Amino acid sequence: MKTPSFFALLLPLVFAGSAMVHAGEAQVSLYVVDRSPEHAESGGVCLPYTPAEKAGSQRDVLAIAQGSAGSTLLLIAFDGDTLHRDLAPVLSEQTGDSKPVRFPDGEASWTHSGATRPVELYVAVFDNADPNLARIAESVEWLSEALEEKAETEILLHAGTVKKRLSNLLRQKSAAEYQAQFGEGDAPRVAPASKAAVTRGQTEGSLLTGPDKHDPKATVAVVRRSLKTLDDEWREDSRAIAFDRSSPGVLVFPVTPPPAP
């Protein structure tokens, strides 16, 4: 008997009614992990991502996230409209005892070298009662199946669909936030993620869109965390993503081509 798909298991949650409606928050951190031999004892040194982090064959990018119970997280990386290096998306339902979610998952790795343009890491969080979740979960499931079958045409098709759905959600959220603050009228255009910069102090659920207005030296403090103890420490570097049933949270990290070592 075929195992029920993640999409099928979500349907009772999506239509469960008002009992599932709540506002929540997810946390996400992004690191460059240095796995050089001198860091073997700690399993690797995790450095909070900045565009200045140098490239290297022994350095990789790692995201770690966790959502409140009753939510579902999606982490996926795009190079333009295609998947970056065919890294499988991570879709994870969150419960009260869920462990932090990592991207890439399993044995896959995202080497921090070789990129020629910014890669966009999308981190989205949905209330399990949000109708948007079932639609995007279906597309993610099809994409995951295409990756397992190495079906290149289907990978391109479903990756493009997921990217389009996430981009639309981001635009809708930007427009809703603008109207809540300034009233009805033309909402501002959302800047392309490739023009965004990873900074601290940005609003939740949005593109990371510009340089921080604080003292630049305040954002350059060196933080080094052990990969072995990262599950206990990553929240100290995290950003919040707010969401509710009618409004998923979406955050985009533009991972820029690193400088040469």
Features:
single chain; 261 residues; 5-stranded antiparallel beta sheet; 6-stranded antiparallel beta sheet; 4 helices; alpha+beta
H/E series, N to C? HEEEEEEEEHHEHEE
Tell me the structural class: alpha+beta
Terminal Cα span: 52 Å
Radius of gyration: 18 Å
Inertia-based shape: globular
Number of domains: 1
Number of helical elements: 4
Low-confidence stretches: 11-21, 178-182, 185-207, 209-220
> How is the biggest beta sheet arranged?
6 strands, antiparallel
Proportion in helices: 10-25%
Tell me what portion of residues adopts beta-strand conformation: 25-35%
Number of strands: 11
Mean pLDDT: 80
Outline the structure in words.
- The chain has 261 residues and is of the alpha+beta class.
- The chain has one domain (6-255).
- Helix content is 24%, strand content 25%.
- It contains 4 helices and 11 strands.
- Helix 1 (6-14) packs antiparallel against helix 2 (131-149) and helix 2 runs antiparallel to helix 3.
Short recap of the structure:
The chain has helices spanning 6-14, 131-149, 152-182, 230-233; strands spanning 24-34, 45-48, 59-67, 71-79, 82-83, 90-94, 101-103, 119-127, 225-226, 239-243, 249-255. With 261 residues, it is α+β, with helices and mostly antiparallel strands.
